[in-house]
Amino acid sequence: MKALVYTAPNQVVHRDEPDPAAGPGEVLIRVEAVGICGSDMHAFHGHDPRRVPPLILGHELAGEILAGPGKGRRVTVNPIIACGRCEYCVQGRDNLCANRTMIGMQRPGGFAERVVTAASAVIDLPEGMDVRAAALTEPAATALHALALASRALARPVPECSVLVIGGGAIGLLAALLLRTWGARRILLAETNALRREAARRASAVEAFDPLAGGGPAEGAMDLVVDAVGAAPTRKAALAAVKPGGVVLHIGLQDRASEIDMRKLTLAEVTLIGAYTYSTADLRAAARALHEGAFGDLAWVEDRPLAEGARAFDDLHHGRSAAAKILLRP
Fold first, then answer.
1. How many folded domains does the chain comprise?
2. For residue 255, what are the domain limits?
3. For 208-258, how does the pLDDT look when each residue is reduced to its tens digit (9 = 90+)?
4. Cβ neighbours of residue 255 under 8 Å, at least 6 residues apart?
């Protein structure tokens, strides 16, 4: 089969790879569409020691089961393969599974014509769901899971809140779109890429601005701040922008560590929440929400052939694409 293989930092190659076969308890999926995630870019840059080349990356996918339980079903997948036995799994918090593995990390991923995963990790798609929406289930579930955590911590309901989203990539934009559906009073989006700012304005009707140009909210003005970047400067900006008693939701994973203003966190009683991926229930809810239009028409998503994947990675690396999400089609 053809696959896009991460072979070295800043290098992916479209080449022939052995055809995968499903073993006991597994399914073989024909990939219809697969998204390039920020974590794939992180690996591409050589910054993720868990993703060791040569490796087929990709974990945001939709397709059809060719072999194994449920043959013929159209599915998306939970890329996290949980053990089902640890304390987190039995609580329904399988994203925190102590023994988890993941396609596109420890196992070959979805930047290929076919992929094998655990039968327990597949999520049935709503009848007639568009493949473009289906392939966004994983990042949409990340946004949904995170905002559900934040909404429980807010002092007032989301429709009464002003929100700052930092980062106009897929997770940030999907969070802004969902907040719009939930009726947030005001949504600001900080994004340094001019192409993405314009795409976000068209897609979500939010107030997109360039944080490097000095725009954005006043200090201490926002009820909720979503950091969908996770870099040292964005963490600092998030703590500066949040109101006393407000919530900072940290989703991005760009930098491993940085100083934050613990004095403000304490004196202003700010709630800081870390959110990682999603549960299986979140994935099912995200698929339904996408199918029902909760995230808009998805016109901001760009489709390219898998064979042109190296160009897509290079365009994302150099900021040449306005798309918050590029889907590759095998």
1. 2
2. 142-274
3. 999 999 888 999 999 999 999 999 999 999 999 999 999 999 999 888 778
4. 230, 231, 232
